[in-house]
């Protein structure tokens, strides 16, 4: 059985973890795309202690054409604005892709046109473009399943935190680490502020629960440093009163009645602080789920990796976790989970 | 759109709750089977304050033949020994069924022959016989999904409690409430002791996770009253030193390596005690889930009810949650979720 061939797109904090998970799943790395490490050997970039004979490149298209990966593992930026060209490039070269960009989890509400374009492009080229990551099980499938135990849902409400400093410089910058409160206030009002991470999550839960989104709400507030706080990923120290991140509150209302709310706080943690994850669904009956001390960072990477067979197996198009079967444990090499049937391009 | 027609099999604690959930799902009760309440009107048995014109009967077959239910909702006994005839009866009359009998969740290991017989019978008659209940999401799909976030699973370990007194007299008797310690020791050694509830759960999780069961282990210990403890469902008071229930520890080993362990304590609760539910999966990375204060009793009933469309839609045969898609929230009348395609009998 031939191993699955994967390309890393992005060689930052996330894909370095991903690279370490692939060998024992029988997935071979055949190419790597990166800006800052271009020209270096991937083995050196990953600090493996030996060369891999794979040169990190800025030219994704040329690499896809020569290395012929089955799938691209995309860990670059969080939003459609940064991801569109990357994913379109995969589709045009006949390469399946999965991204952990947060907006891409379910971008039909925040970037409907671009999502339709990616969907059409993927169908035309017979590949699957997928959103995934931490949210896949813990937010979409776990919560949609839990709602399935209820007779009546009134309100789903979640609080979640993540340590901005674990996800690399891109996310730290996006999360406004180091900004002053006045800068933040201006940015908050400006057009350049991208959508929050909460809406794609709530929209994905709604989609998986057969609920029709009729309205959305959004609030954002700064999280400021009480004392000088170092930020590893940016190599700076945030002064007291400046931002260590921010908290968003997203709300989704539905035609069927249930209201979905998510408070998401991405900030530099204090020493000893761990990821918080708690969700309550109110109705008949109330149900709750907590995932104590879940490692958001590592489970972002493990879930992207564990999705590889599902993405290759899926029908062509753009798809998020709500459109894929739930993740399952995979004890065997991933190539054994590939379906034999050839996939048909719909378009 | 015609409502779904359901029959209640058993009119005890569980199906009384179930009956209250059905009307707003567009599911009509067309018959009821019960031993102790035979001849009474179902409306009186359910304490609705009005008659339903449905007489509780002991003759399930005659009721199926005349009332033609689409599905039977079975809440009578916990084990294959008590359920086999009930489910076979459904199949022979062309009636789909779902049962909350704990062994029926995944009875392929504890009662393989009987399960194969029910499976063959169901295929022959073109119906689905299904196991379900509390375990459906909270134990099978939630845990199998969580394992899907891991790179490597070493050990899945769960602790769970339920209040024996919430589930009616049948379960309280099965759980040895009121027995003396010496009686319990004899019963523990005897052939009449039925399988524990843990093995079907662990086997279902293994099946949903593509793990091959190679061995099983079982321990059981009494839970004794520290003071006189009333048992509502049996109408007795348990004296100090006698049993308020017992705790089992089931273990499953797998060919692929992971070990699955479940400690399940079914006893009469002390005042203020609530259901405990906590599972840890150890490996890379460790992941945990807690469902704080989940109402085991009510979610047993809501999940049986919410499975109705899936069971009617499923291919003929015997199936547990591991063979069904995960539960999803259903805001609309259940008839709208029925597939239009006729189901094909495989056999």
TrEMBL record, chains A, B:
Q: Which Pfam families match?
A: DAP_DH_C
Q: Which Gene3D superfamilies match?
A: NAD(P)-binding Rossmann-like Domain
Give coiled-coil spans as residue ranges: none
What the entry lists under InterPro entries is as follows:
DAP_DH_C (IPR045760), NAD(P)-bd_dom_sf (IPR036291)
Q: Where is the 2,4-diaminopentanoate dehydrogenase C-terminal domain?
A: 147-324
What domain of life does the native source organism fall in? Bacteria
Q: What name has this protein been given in UniProt?
A: 4-hydroxy-tetrahydrodipicolinate reductase
